[in-house]
Design a protein that fits this description.
Elements lengths: L1 H17 L3 H29 L6 E5 L6 H9 L17 E4 L10 H5 L3 E3 L11 E6 L11 E4 L12 H9 L3 E7 L6 H10 L6 E6 L6 H15 L6 E4 L1 E3 L4 E3 L7 H6 L7 H50 L7 H13 L5 H10 L4 H7 L4 H5 L2 H26 L4 H49 L2 H9 L2 H14 L4 H6 L1 H12 L3 H33 L15 H13 L8
Parallel strand pairs: 1-5, 1-6, 2-4, 3-4, 6-7, 7-8
Antiparallel strand pairs: 2-5, 9-10
The structure holds guanosine-5'-triphosphate (GTP) and magnesium ion.
């Protein structure tokens, strides 16, 4: 699951950089924040699991200038956190801990991942991928034993550049201290953040800072309303802090001295896995919305491809296999038959031909070299190539239409340009495959001729009449010329001699056998053309086209990937570990 969240996050970030539409940008940025938060929260789960002595983590969070760093100093009774009247002063997560916790904090580097741990005063302001952990020696009267984190703001103009650090410091927290001032408590950014954190179930404390005498009750009521508008859990304790001009710090009321210690009792790491699951479930369908929409486009594309392959096959049947004039394969089998017959009356002719040839016909046939010329002039090949070309043209048109529609325009547009760019390659590969199919299929043609030959041997009558007919010589000559490349099969089909032979055989006692053999040959041919050419060289290649789309502009996450992760969400309920 963690890996999947990371993948989604990368893809969202890459796509966001390519988007120009402002609405998309805002939505995508929100989802990226949610994904960063979820990834960090899961990393926290690993941190807790790997550390039996997990030190409590308290994060002080809030909008800029609310007084977060000041309150960190108050709680630590120090001046370690830098305070400034300039907005966006703290820009790195800065942790403070007692020496006892330092070993247990080793796992923090694993939690922060690519963020580098540095000395607080050495973190450069132009780097936003670092954090500090500073050792403090005194024990605070207000804090349980813990690591206290001062965090950057999440609302200033510049905060987008260090937002990941903020989110990581917030997800790490076992307890959250939200600092708001009377100027800032009503800001949308504050309540968006509190809403986003609900699924993390962190015990929370609100510090109402920079207040003046008499305004407290009013602010408290309003705070409560704001809380209840975005969260279902109980409104937390609020500590109101008044400013001490003489020391320049807010004052933590002594009556609230033990508040954080009490709150620490509510921390329950056993539920971490369940909370992780809840967090993922909360956003799952929203995160996957563009992924699924892209998958649907891919499914639609598959449908279009299937449909056009089906159409192509129908065209092949109509215009070749079942076409009375174009279909020539069986005629070719008959020509083979004549060669096999080696009718005695033709002996002289055949011998003469053999003399002319540099090798005997039989040997030449066994080498299979004679076939090449047949393919060149094949009506079938011309047609197959035309069908393939027509299929691609139609698909390109359909892709253009889809790119005009509402959904996934960019996806359709890019698949369209991929196809246009690769069209010639696809066609060339198809032509090659068609040629080699055609040559290979001559074996089936020969087999058919063999079957007929054996059948004829059982029928001396027909054999005799075949031998008796004068056209045989003519036809055999044609068959031989055909082998040598002197005539195309197409011409052969219409050669009068061939027609006579065909008629003679069809009208003879083996007529129905001829039909059966012809039919079997056609069926076999249809199957081979379907699988070897239309499916293998067109359907598959076209269906895989979207896989070439760039992961910089597309999610490219498959249905199977989503399903396998989704299983984790539904199967392992009740806080079982997700990872
Ligand atoms: N009047 C008044 N000023 C305060 C109070 N608390 C802090 N300040 C001042 O407000 C300014 C901001 O305080 P910080 O503690 O730096 O605020 P922050 O939330 O850490 O701000 P960033 O790090 O910039 O996000 C400083 O000038 C503080 O001296 C307060 O209770 N009352
Ligand atoms: Mg600060």
């Amino acid at each position: 699951m963690l890996e999947f969240i990371k993948l989604l996050n990368y893809r969202y970030q890459a796509i966001l950089n390519q988007r120009t539409n402002d609405i998309d940008k805002i939505t995508y940025q929100q989802r990226i924040d949610q994904l960063i938060l979820t990834e960090a929260f899961m990393r926290k789960g690993l941190f807790i699991k790997s550390n039996t002595n997990h030190p409590l983590q308290i994060s002080v969070i809030g909008p800029t200038q609310a007084g977060k760093s000041s309150i960190v100093n108050v709680l630590l009774d120090s001046n370690l956190a830098n305070v400034s009247p300039l907005a966006g002063h703290t820009i790195h997560p800065q942790g403070y801990t007692q020496p006892d916790n330092l070993t247990a904090c080793n796992g923090l580097q694993g939690y922060f991942g690519r963020f580098q741990q540095m000395q607080q005063d050495q973190m450069p302001r132009d780097r936003h991928d670092c954090y500090s952990l500073t050792q403090i020696n005194s024990k605070s009267v207000f804090l349980p034993e813990c690591v206290l984190w001062d965090t950057p703001d999440f609302d200033s103009i510049d905060s987008s550049v260090y937002r990941e650090g903020v989110i990581r410091a917030i997800a790490l927290a076992d307890i959250v201290i939200l600092v708001v001032s009377k100027e800032k408590y009503a800001d949308q950014s504050v309540w968006d953040m509190m809403s986003a954190l609900e699924a993390l179930h962190q015990p929370t404390l609100i510090c109402l800072n920079k207040i003046s005498e008499g305004s407290e009750d009013l602010l408290l009521n309003s705070l409560k309303e704001k809380w209840q508008a975005v969260r279902k859990d109980n409104f937390p304790e609020v500590v109101s802090l008044y400013y001490q001009k003489n020391i320049g710090l807010p004052l933590w009321p002594i009556s609230n001295k033990d508040l954080l210690k009490k709150l620490s009792k509510k921390v329950d790491h056993k539920k971490q896995a369940r909370y992780e699951q809840e967090l993922v479930q909360k956003h799952w369908s929203e995160w996957l919305e563009p992924v699924i929409s892209e998958q649907n486009a891919a499914k639609e594309w598959q449908r279009l491809v299937d449909q056009s392959i089906k159409q192509a096959l129908e065209n092949y049947q109509r215009d070749y296999l079942n076409h009375p004039h174009h279909y020539e394969t069986f005629q070719h089998a008959l020509a083979e038959l004549l060669a096999l017959l080696e009718i005695p009356g033709l002996a002289g002719f055949l011998t003469g031909t053999r003399k002319v040839l540099t090798w005997p016909i039989r040997k030449m046939m066994s080498l299979g070299k004679k076939r090449l010329h047949i393919a060149d002039s094949s009506q079938e090949l011309v047609l197959l190539n035309q069908i393939a070309e027509h299929t691609l043209i139609q698909l390109i048109d359909q892709l253009m239409d889809k790119a005009e529609e509402e959904n996934q325009r960019l996806w359709w547009k890019e698949v369209g340009s991929l196809l246009r760019r690769q069209r010639n390659d696809v066609l060339q590969a198809f032509t090659q495959a068609a040629l080699s199919y055609h040559l290979d299929f001559q074996q089936d043609v020969e087999k058919t001729a063999q079957h007929l030959y054996h059948k004829l041997q059982e029928q001396p009558l027909i054999l005799n009449s075949l031998r008796a007919t004068r056209v045989t010589a003519d036809a055999t000559a044609i068959a031989l010329t055909l082998h040598m490349g002197g005539i195309g099969v197409h011409d052969l089909v219409f050669a009068p001699a061939m027609l006579t032979i065909t008629t003679l055989l069809t009208e003879s006692a083996i007529g129905s056998y001829m039909h059966k053999v012809e039919n079997d040959l056609k069926q076999q041919q249809l199957l081979v053309v379907k699988q070897r050419l239309f499916e293998e060289k067109l359907g598959k290649v076209l269906a895989l086209l979207p896989e070439q789309l760039s992961s910089l502009s597309h999610f490219n996450i498959t249905d199977a990937q989503v399903k396998s992760v989704e299983q984790l969400l539904t199967e392992k309920r009740h806080g079982l570990r997700l990872l």
